[in-house]
User: Fold these one by one.
Assistant:
Number 1:
Amino acid sequence: MSSGYHIVVCAGIVPDPLQTLEPVETPSGPGLKNEMMLPAVLDPWASHALYEAADLAAKCPGSKVWLLSLGPKAKLQQVMMTIAQKVSFELVALDASAGGFTDAHAVAEALAGAIQKINGLDRSRMLLFGGWESASRGAGVTLQLTGERLGIADQFQGVDQLTVQHDGSLEILERIEGGRHQVSSCSGAPALFGWATGNLPEPRNSPQIGMVNMRTFMPALQKAEQAKLASASLHYRDVRPPQQQRQTRIVKDVAPKEIAKEIVRWMGAEPEVTR
Amino acid sequence: MTKTILCLAHVDEGGRALPKAAYEVLGVAIELAGKLGAALIVGLIGDEIQTAADLIADCGATRILGVFGPEFTSPRFATDAAGLEALCRAAEAELVLAPATSRFQRALPAVGGRLSGRVDTHISSLAVVGEVVCATRWFYRQRIEGQIRREERPWILLLDAGCHESWRGAPAKAILEQVTVSLAENSLRTKVSGVRMPKTDAQTIRPEAELLFVAGAGWTKKQADGKPHPEEAEKLILEFLAASKASLGGSKSLVDQSGENQAVLGFMTHLNQVGQTGATPRHPKGLSTCCHGEEPHVVGWRFVNERRAINLDPNCGWARGKADVLYVADAFEVIKEVNALLAAAAEKKLATATD
């Protein structure tokens, strides 16, 4: 009997968070100025999902990790050069021009279709991983819709911890309001996990892992199917960055005690302290 | 054309009342129904919902639908999705509004898929342009704002908290229509065993707090004497939080340091992180200390109305043009003085109370 998990990590690519983003109108709807020129990174929360997947696979013999990524081929290649050195996985690439303004429903359809076509994937022991939200759309919708299309009945969002218990069940910590975690247990795969940050640091680059991964990456990129993500029914208007600029009052060369008094007064505790 | 609006809500953890965000969404739904001349239906989910239904009985809803029972006590994807799907089908509404709570955020997107509708989340406002409903939301983690509209129905919209006035009304006796749900066999595979607090010395995340205190990596850097003082920083911040009842946010660099087991602020976790890859809380006031950085970090307090910053760099991108007031000073010294003043104020208050 087979053991271990088949973990599919859905991870998009996003512009490097340090870049300035300026929306522009394109023939296919809103986009980012110089989008193809902006340096890209693997989506931060999805990256955590990938690291957690690799960690879980290492702990559970017989497990395998696939990284399913949708984006322009050239961008995927650029990002994979870095990610390939972090953890071992098999890449499944979908070629599409995807950004924050792409419809999540179309992306979910493409992802679900690609997962169904993965060779050797045993969906009865599949754990579908991804970020609970992306740094582009930030909707927290794509993964749920993908899971729904695949018929996954156990879904968890804002996951910070996943532990395999002695009896094979899974204990999950999900973020809820007030900085707390909801604790659940699930009898096992298949299940879906939208990861928050998890608990693992970013793995160090390993040239050995990179070499192994790169053998499969280029063929995967070459045979990447083109995904059509058009959504005729989603219409945008008035897409713009916030223009708010505050007139900042600079307070310099003032004693800490005086600053403290002003802050306390501003906080609303002044009657007792300023007399 | 929108004939019916369904406003969804779940009972809070106490099991009787509704969360504050539900009243805000109800306020939006009533306003929208008025503008569109649409009927308003409310859908509730939870273990026991009659008490909650009574609280909003006077909101003008034409029907109050309910899915209830022990299976719906705890937030769980399978049962919540089934219950919410049943409510949506029973209401046959074109628009479905719901608060973006963790419970609904987990289950409602899949419901949109089941109904062959569409779902959008983190909506900050709704408007009617002509007769068309448009929703405003943020893209790229609060860095670009856009207005969208969709043609498919039902259109499920999850609204962020703190964006609208809450509905207020007196309780009355509600007539609740039960909607029955047939749960699939595998719906109860997940069991919710409870809620766990983060591993911190004190509760530092307070969503209802008046003030957000943002600590930056500067707290752990070398100070004037050439040495870092993380213990002193920890003490000052915890004292401040205890006295002010503020909520604590942290910059990514500071939170990451904690994860890497450096000798930094022990109580800071990723849950405290605000900014591009963290939370964007909505507190009325924000005080940032020792924070540095540009746009990606500033999004952490985009929704904070009144902002002040303490920083040694008068040209810091975090504060200039983003804060109302920038105090160019040593945060260690200022917060020490603030703590002393707050302690004095508390003592005086106590003395007055005992007199």
Number 2:
Amino acid sequence: MTKGGQALSGEKSATAYWSANVRLILWNLVIWALVSFGFGIVLRPMLSGIAIGGTDLGFWFAQQGSIFVFLVQIFVYALMMNKLDAEYGVEE
Amino acid sequence: MDQYTLNLLVVGASFALYIGIAIWARAGSTSEFYAAGRGVHPVMNGMATGADWMSAASFISMAGLISAVGYDNSTYLMGWTGGYVLLAMLLAPYLRKFGKYTVPEFIGDRFYSNTARMVAVICLIVASVTYVIGQMTGVGVAFARFLEVDKATGLYIGATIVFMYAVLGGMKGITYTQVAQYCVLILAYSIPAIFISLQLTGVFLPQIGLFSEHTASAQPLLVKLDQIVTDLGFASYTGHHQSTLNMVLFTMSLMIGTAGLPHVIVRFFTVPKVADARFSAGWALVFIALLYTTAPAVGAMARLNLLNTISDNGAQADGITYEARPDWMKNWEVTGLLKFEDKNGDGRIQYYNDKSEAFKATAEANGWAGSELTVNNDIMVLANPEIANLPGWVVALVAAGGLAAALSTAAGLLLAISSAISHDVIKGSLNPGISEKGELLAARISMGVAIVVATYLGLNPPGFAAQTVALAFGIAAASLFPVLMMGIFSKRINNAGAVAGMLSGLIFTLVYIFVYKGWFFIPETNQLPDNAANWVFGISPLSIGTVGALVNFGAAYLVSSMTKEPPVEIQTLVESVRVPRGANKAVAH
């Protein structure tokens, strides 16, 4: 087993890297849930006033919009993590 | 050239390509057999993951499921894509960093328990076997429909092809065939969709066509569709008619089930670096989204096309005469996927919702004696090229696409099953001293046996085979996903906690499913009828995986907090999987 922690200057830096990652993940999960379970399902009645192509915004989020948001989320997360890895000196 | 010869040519050419790849991508080591030497480019892996993930169900059935129900079945779209967000952020990069070959291996090492590893092997095998049977029957059906051979012969041909590239090439062979299979299936799906969108709306992209104006009626397509279906007594297409709670829980079960399915997770073991695993999940979703954003358009447009064809004089008037039905209906009647029964003997086709009480009066006034057309949902995709009058080679491409979708998923599942046998059971437990060469041979033999067993089960599908969504996703969601996530995000969850979590999540989920679907899916052995009135809090057995996952998290936390914390080396292991640096090196191809 290779030790990944060796490059870090200390215990503190490893903890800081991990909590920065966890914060980023939590924000992403909030958006992830908001567009699918939120806009797509539970909050759909609230968005029913916004018309789009013969139906309402909630329908669009449920059938298409949420997938586009998921896509953007993964790439943005991957890019931000590359930056974070470099910042903490843990990139490969 | 007739259609049959065309089908044979296109399918034959695609098979020749897969075999060519099999010969080129032979595996020389266990690393190549299990993880393609970890040298797969993240975009390539994304494409392979797309084919690995999108099964016969995604390719053939999903648009039909959406078509039949409309908005309420958006759960499949969100559920089967949202899981990739979870994979990219919660599992894939860390499991890639861990750098071993199988999902049970991580569970065994992280929870320093062979029991945990074996429980994981059992969960993996039950989920994957259920899943693979559906693919094998899909191969048989596709052959029977397009190449006019019987189902068994079709299944043998399909199994032989998989045997060649999976046994020879392992993960390496499977990866590159999946890339080719993705290209075939996405072309086969998009081309008819684009033409149908052009015909109905004049818009090239089906994704935009769905929300555009229906040229013939000068109304938005979805407004027109809502109007036609409600005129015939069906529930509106864009409306929300089922329980909201169930919709949320079902979507969640599909999401965490997707993230917890071993055959998907292991695809991310094949990329060179941790950062690649994150991007690769994004690429996988790009390739999946190409099909998944087309599917709702195909569903809506096919439904509109079908209803327009039958009641060309408007919904309330009489349908077309049976004699005047279009050729594609004649073709599909032969397969039994489309059935007509002239209940009122007027020689015309009446298709409406005969289960609607509110519509009964209208139907009686019209002299209708029940809906006369039975339409299998799968037609929405399979008959699309014929409905749109597309040339024969497009029909042939759809045949090759359906086969590619089923074969690529079957191969991925078979690899997950056989590596669990050769790596987790044989090397991990029965014969730890086995040499590299011995293990590679064991892996090949396990793969061969898995294919034979899957073929047998495809020919004689057991009762549980039809329950892929409940069983495979339920197990992955309730047993595997939570322990994998806790293994990375918590240092406190220990061996006893993981085993307790997996078993309680698994047993809870299975019992709930069995109570409604029958014990071990044997008909008539269910305690309660499988309908919303009898479900606890209205939660369907298909959605119970979400609750099972919560049970798993809860039990693991409780048991861990009452028992000893994991040893120091395990805590160091968790720290090491959390940072990218130090993952083992790639092997160039």
